[in-house]
Amino acid sequence: MVEKINQIEKETLDELSKVKSLDALEEIRVKVMGKKGSMTEILKSMKDLSVEEKKEVGKVANIAKTKISEAIDAKKEELENQGGSDKFFDYTYTLPEKVGTYHPITKVQQEIEEIFQGMGFMVDYGNEVVTEFENFTSVNVPEDHPARDMQDTFWLDNGELLRTQTSAQQVNVMKKYGAPFKAIVPGRTFRNEKVDASHENTFFQLEGMLVDEKVSVANLIYFMRELLSKVLDEKDLEVRLRPGFFPFVEPGFELDMKCKLCGGKGCRTCKNSGWIEMLPCGMIHPNVLKAGGIDTEKYSGFAFGLGLTRLAMMKYGIKEIREMNSMDIRKLGQIR
Ligand code: FA5
How far, in Å, CA of 288 to CA of 3, rounded? Predict the structure, then answer.
């Protein structure tokens, strides 16, 4: 019997040293010390022993019981201090009540990417930090143009700048793909500007370019209308084309659309004009095509620079451009 007790003690202490959870610890306690536990059974069977034997076995049994109890208590404390590995897993996982959604600008950007990819355009993102050459010189912006001014541009200490327009990627794209090509460049742009209902100093643009043989203004207008009516889901979208000057296009245009926020009546967002400037565009200036290594005798092309932030505002009826950058998910989450 003594031998049996020593064996139970040894095995139990061994098992206890390996235990990793409070549940497993309790199992061992019940198995050994519980009502029907191995040690309890041994002690019960002592009633059949002689007085002498009871004395001897009782001593060994008491020592073993104490050792096991102490080992169980010590292990319990250790596991509880660790948080108990069972406790660690004892969480009820539930799905969040509110499901996240894409930011309205991201949604519009993805939608336009799909529309243009469907028409065979490449999607290129370019960099947000660019050189003065990329942002201005390569796209025919004269040295003394006011856009290069400190007031409009966020210059970096190393002479580079935060791109003020996605047009900064025009020449890179021409060099990358070579003529003929079709590409769009969506991305963030930055301007050191006074903020109001429709102007922010960080906003999104989407540049588009198509270079091929015999490209005309008619092609340009077709793509612009196609883009706006698909994104805004309106067949008879009212647009107007005005002459516009941009050094990198000739001729250049401003394509305005009827303000969807006020239905053309005039509001703060459209500065009471009823129209919102949405899509400056034009035929790519030969100087820019040449900078991109394109044969201007053979190829011509159009380019446009869509105000993505403003388009998202029109699509989702957002009156204040600041709401787009506010990170207020209560407001942004309501936009469907
Ligand atoms: C440009 O940036 C030209 N690069 C666009 C272009 C590309 C013309 C290719 C011709 C050919 P503009 O400065 O007008 O143009 O800006 C283009 C659009 O960006 C505007 O119509 C407007 O929708 C949006 N935008 C300009 N400034 C801001 C601003 N501060 N906040 C929000 N959107 C702006």
Answer: 97
Q: Whose CA is nearest to atom 2 of ligand 1?
A: 165
In this structure, which residue's CA is closest to atom 20 in ligand 1? 307
Give this prediction's pTM.
0.71
Q: Could you tell me the distance, in angstroms and rounded to a whole number, from the CA of residue 245 to the centre of ligand 1? A: 12
The residues near 264 (Cβ < 8 Å, ≥ 6 apart) are: 238, 258, 274, 275
**129-143 pLDDT tens trace:** 999 999 999 999 988
Provide residues with CB under 6 Å of ligand 1.
165, 167, 191, 193, 199-200, 203, 205, 207, 246, 248-249, 252, 277-278, 280-282, 303-305, 307, 309-310, 321
Give me the pLDDT at residue 284, please. Answer: 98
Residue 60, CA distances (Å) to 49, 56, 196, 276, 333 in order:
14, 7, 88, 95, 71
In this structure, are residues 259 and 232 in contact, taking their beta carbons and an 8 Å threshold?
Answer: no
Question: By the 8 A CB rule, do 204 and 188 touch?
Answer: yes
